[in-house]
Amino acid sequence: MADCLFCKIAAGEIPVERIYENNDVLAFPDINPVAPVHILIIPKKHYATSIDLSEEAPELCAAMLKASTEVARFQGIDKSGFRLILNTNADGGQEIFHMHMHLLGGEYIGRLRGR
Ligand code: AMP
After folding, report:
1. What is the residue with the minimal CA distance to atom 17 of ligand 1?
2. Is 99 in the pocket of ligand 1 (CB under 6 A)?
3. Which of 102, 93, 94 is nearest to 49 (CA)?
4. How far apart are the C-alpha atoms of 108 and 115, rounded to whole Å?
5. What's the CATH fold of domain 5-105?
6. Does ligand 1 lie within 6 Å of residue 96's CB atom?
7. How far is residue 8 CA from its own chain's centroid?
8. 100 is annotated as an active-site residue
9. For a pocket test of ligand 1, which of 6, 31, 104 has the largest count of ligand atoms closer than 8 A to its C-beta?
10. pLDDT tens, position by position, 85-111
11. pLDDT in tens, 10-32
12. pTM check: above 0.85
């Protein structure tokens, strides 16, 4: 996608710290972290939302989850724990329409609903 920020990052046109990558998936730090570890995991190919990914390339869903395990291990937070967030469409708070997962950790992230 010509005007997609994350496509440009995947293609190397915008430099990022490439924390992890394989043929299908890339992980890099979120530019505006909300936790000590805040990493984005994206499919290199463009899928606008998680809905598109799951319908058009279900095998990549497994690859994304597997990548999150590798990233968490690499960051040394697999045992302490982490949270995966996948915002989808407007009510989900999705701002960038190249599907991505947030991996958050490095401190206690808290529970849903603040409890
Ligand atoms: P979302 O609200 O789920 O679409 O999240 C988009 C995320 O992309 C936000 O957490 C932003 O901080 C992050 N972001 C935006 N631009 C960049 C960039 N150039 N490099 C890394 N992360 C970015």
Report:
1. 31
2. no
3. 94
4. 12
5. HIT family, subunit A (3.30.428)
6. yes
7. 15
8. yes
9. 31
10. 999 999 999 999 999 999 999 999 988
11. 999 999 999 999 999 999 999 99
12. yes
